[in-house]
Amino acid sequence: MRHMRLKHGTVDLNSRRRQNVLEVSEDQVDDPDIPEHRVSNSSRSDTSQLVQTQSCRLNAVARPIQSNLITRYMPKPVGVSRKYFPFNVVEDREFIKLISMLNSGYTLPSRKILTTSLLPVMYNEVYEKVRNDINSNARYHYIDNNCILKTYLLSCFKYSVSHTSQNLKNELIRVVSEWGLQNKIAACTSDNASNITGAILLCNWRHIGCFAHSLNLAVQHALKEVQDIRDKVKGIVGHFKRSSQAAAKLKLRQEQLEYSSTLNVIQDVVTRWNSTYEMFERILHLKTPLSSALSESNYDVHLNVSDWQIISNTCDILKRFKEITIEISSEKSVSISKVVVLSKALINYCGQLKNKYPGSSVTTKFIDVLTNQVVSRFEKYEWNILYAEAVILDPRFKNHGFLNNSAFIEGKKSLVNKARDIQLGSENHTSVATMPSTSHDSIWNDFDTEVQSLVQKPSISRTADPLLW
Predict the structure, then answer these.
(1) What distance in Å separates the CA atoms of residue 247 and residue 268, rounded to the nearest whole number?
(2) Could you tell me if 353 and 374 are in contact, meaning their C-beta atoms sit under 8 angstroms apart?
(3) 147-176, pLDDT tens digit by residue?
(4) What segment(s) does the record annotate as region Disordered (predicted)?
(5) What residues contact residue 326 under an 8 Å CB cut-off, 6+ apart?
(6) How many Å apart are CA 355 and CA 371, to the nearest integer?
(7) Exposed, middle or buried: residue 39 (CB in 10 Å: 0-12, 13-18, 19+)?
(8) Global pTM value
(9) Is residue 173 part of a domain?
């Protein structure tokens, strides 16, 4: 090429370059396997000009549309998605270079435009969508027309005022009023702290305690019985977290023992559910390489045989509690009807543990405290009419989730009375609900038979969705 430019300057290199490019006419675009000899030389220059012209026109139309889509998408990964990238990612040189390689005709918006223009627009769009959904369904958590459980976070803000019940009540009322949900709150779920439960009661809303939070409190009370070993393990974990040399030795020992993957120790955090179980489980899994790495370090606290046995027993016991915490914490499935069933399962499970670990007095005391906590906190749930009705109406459970049959009977009576109230109207509710049946020949015979049939029908699979039943 250099020789042609220097010695033969009259030769048009651009025309030669165009002739070497295979151009395909518009009617051949769907047939990429057309050989080169089928395109006549006489039509190449015309076809090349046509394709270039059409390409320019397409780019002129496509690039603004594509650029607009990219610009609208930018706030999503930056500020809204779970990745939570910082806003200054649009100013990062490598990120700018990547976008340029993907689309050289696109210019990233500045950080100021992103925060002051794009993000507010997206917020307003989502705000209107959520408001419309809530106005049509009147719930934070609700079931849509397709029987799918929906959840919205309506507000999240820093609150620096004293967290008294009255102050929290004022904020709850403010948020509810802002979204137009006055007199539409069916129930409110929170932890068991007195200030938030008091605030909910001041709002005159029905309060439902968080089952997972109560479960965690029961476990935390029982863990006090193994506090000495817990402190030992936390100290060992802290040593490997602080010392890079100790962490490197632990990794090396795992590699030498041919562990499938090298793992780090997990630290216990009081406010994080199941974290003690996860700490014990991980250190038990790393027992051999961790003991070897500890023996070569300057850390003078070690776990003896009895300690390892108690850690193993505790993990074995708490495995079910972690399973239940995960099960009940889902936002995509119905959970209130599981509370009574899981309470029954926990009480039965704790009863089976009493004679399972006879060789350890520490473990025996741990089981006793755990059992007392579980029974005192969860035995009452089936007597709560709201929970009882939820279990009976759930086609997965019906009457199978109750420890006491009397609790089932009371829940069934409540459902029948409410159904009759819907049928006859509120003015007849008192007389129908309280009047004892004097005859088997009644207008309610068909209705009572239908209710009994519902209970007697086979339950659906435990993993099935009751909303789609």
Answers:
(1) 17
(2) no
(3) 677 777 888 888 899 999 999 999 999 998
(4) 17-50
(5) none
(6) 13
(7) middle
(8) 0.66
(9) yes
